[in-house]
Amino acid sequence: MSKLHAVLLVTTFTLYCWTIPVVAKEGGSQSLSNSIDEANSLLTGAGFFSPYPKGFPADPDQPLGSRWLPPGRPFPSIPVDMRDLKISLRKTNRSEIEADVGGHRSVYGWKGNLLGHDIILHVGLEGNAYFTMRKEGLRFPLQSSDGLFGAYIEAARNSWFFQLRYTHISAHLSDGAPDIPTAIRYSREYILLRVAKQWGWARPYLALRYLTNTTPDDLNDFGMQVGFYAITPIQFGLFRPYFGVDFRHSGGQEGTTTNYGTGLALTSEMEAPLIRFSINYMTGNDLRGQFFNTKIKKWYGGLELDF
Q1: Quick one: pLDDT at residue 180?
Q2: Which of 65, 73, 196, 248 would bridge with 161, disulfide CB 3.0–4.6 Å?
Q3: Closest among 82, 57, 56 to 261, alpha carbons compared
Q4: Helix, strand or coil for residue 2?
Q5: pLDDT reported for residue 50
Q6: What's the confidence (pLDDT) of residue 53?
Q7: How far apart are alpha carbons 110 and 64 in whole angstroms?
Q8: Please, what are the averages of pLDDT over each run of 10 residues along the chain (307 residues)?
């Protein structure tokens, strides 16, 4: 156990012992029960009771019942999904710089028991922007930008993870685009249902997507996504190698896209989301909205921070 874990354990255990007699004196057995739940949440939130291998973030926790503005989210970002939420800066082999900036906030959380297992459920809001810039010496003119925002319902139960998203996304061409191609109108709303399962040090996932509205309108309504990522037990200090594959199929003009990712994950002593040094290879249709029917093959890598 590290010094940081020891300090946190002593601190939370002190709070545990201090709150029980104080609350019991003031509020009786019900308050005592609530106090125990709060103290257990402190310990679990600190990562001491994380059921997952090192490198996978611990589930958010709270006392039984409802809570407004709970911390974290039950379905963490997927490292090899290049359209999931993350903060990142990457360079491609096509003299491009990619920057992703986003965030989320769970608004409502609930914890209860379902078929003998605790379940955590969150409802929240999220948003992300994806920028592509060309590298011209020390200048980086903006080529294109894609932005999304939406709402999510997520749950974690006994190493299963569930996610339901309703998302708007639009794409725009900027004046830094080479040869000034003709911009198209690209806007859509979609529903995404995704399920993941923790198996050892790997986490496979499957998703189904349905377009509720789209421009251009001659696109397939249904799409699917399947993949996995693994954080290995091999360790170099705080770093652990990771790897994974993300495959998405939409058919029609959007075709298919496969992303292969690997690199080193900087794991947190607190089981927090990862910081990663990544290398990726993508082949298939471009994920940028303005180029959705363009075939690409590219290498890219850099620094990424998950949520």
Answers
A1: 60
A2: 196
A3: 82
A4: coil
A5: 64
A6: 84
A7: 7
A8: 43 41 43 47 47 84 93 94 95 94 96 90 97 86 94 95 98 78 89 97 97 89 96 92 97 93 86 85 96 94 90
Q: What is the pTM of this model?
A: 0.81
Q: Which domains does the chain have, with CATH numbers?
A: 3-68 (no CATH), 86-306 (2.40.230.10)
Q: Which string of DSSP letters, residue by residue, matches 68-116?
A: ES-SS-SSPPPTT-TTSSEEEEEEETTSEEEEEEEEEEEEEEEEEEETT
- For the chain, the residue count is 307
Calculate the CA 271 to chain-centre distance: 14
Q: Side-chain half-sphere of 279: how many Cα atoms within 13 Å?
A: 5
Strands (E) across 199-294 are located at 202-215, 222-231, 239-251, 255-266, 275-285
Exposure b/e, 63-97, CB count within 10 A at least 16 = b: beeebeebebbbbbbbbbbbbbbbbbebebeeebb
Q: Indicate the SS3 state at residue 176.
A: coil
| Residue 122 amino acid letter | H
Question: What are the structure tokens assigned to 36, written together?
Answer: 């125990």
pLDDT at 270: 64
